[in-house]
Amino acid sequence: MILKRRNFIQTSTLALVSGLVLPYNSISNMKKGNLPKANLKLSFDPCNLQLKHVFTLAGSSRSTTPVMLTKIEFEGITGYGEASMPPYLGESQESAGRFLAGLKLDQFTDPFRVDEILEYVDNSAPGNTAAKAAVDIALHDLVGKIMGQPWYKIWGLSAEKTPVTSFTIGIDSPEVVRQKVKEAAEFKILKVKLGRENDREMIETIRSVTDVPLCVDVNQGWKDKHKALDMIYWLNEKGVKYVEQPMSKENPDDIAWLTQNSPLPIIADEALQRLTDVQKTVGVYSGINIKLMKCTGMREAHKMMNLALANKMKVMIGCMTETSCAISAAAQLSPLATWADLDGNLLISNDRFEGVKIVDGKITLIDRPGIGIKEI
Ligand code: MG
Questions:
Q1: pLDDT tens per residue, range 295-323
Q2: Closest CA to 291 of 362, 217, 211, 239
Q3: How far does residue 196's CA lie from ligand 1's centre (Å)?
């Protein structure tokens, strides 16, 4: 008996030392009688999101947003992804369809090689950042599901550190603005789009119905740095917490001056897209707004956040109009952010997924593997 046990221990030790422990793929292939290895299978489906309210920015209005929903299937498990393509960013369902149709993900047999797969995707063509994000999100969802864990846990983040999310109040007539503010009573911070002639009127209208904290997004709308600074002092007195992209991204010197003199943090949005852009915002802005659709997805967004934090900058995570798929993917990163603007799924009437929840204005992660969504 003792001998048998010793033999077993020796054999087990030998197996470990000599590398006889078979990798996952070999074991699953043996179980299937040495069938060929499974390949990643990518599919995609265009869809138009219906907005509850017409959305007005400094420059355009629209009532739908085109998206492309993606799936990556592997050994019976499906990861879901999404590209959101508001027209002003230059991508469309046609361009995303062309890009995705050109990818050969079936060359990959190990979904855990996330770096290798996403570098192949990124190098396939320039641009196409939303289409690339749709692959990145689906791959993360798939890998998380295989591991049986949500990504915030895989990254070692704490669910209770998620920030509150802002809710955007678009530019509109005072009556409509008052109505929208009442509908947004659950939110602890409201985002106001400024950069038009009626900026002070917008703020005064909102202040006539609520004293909830505000943040403002100027979308590069202010032209003069001195006037911008005066406005920021006034906004500070009105309970505004930060200012997003106050002036043109083409004038970093003016923005650096504004940041130095401003009582409120100045956040870059249009001024950056990807990891390689973060360094040029250091010393110019107080923080950066990261969006999966601009930076090719979760993998690069995670790197950008860590780089910004290492440079003592504030981090904000934002979104486009998206379903709960891309919103839940971004929410996995939100414990690293000071502020979040993840309301894109709340602005649409035809969501296809259920995922992250907003409870008392706070992003509330769900303990479900991958990006934490299910189809509805
Ligand atoms: Mg913005």
A1: 999 999 999 999 999 999 999 999 999 99
A2: 217
A3: 15
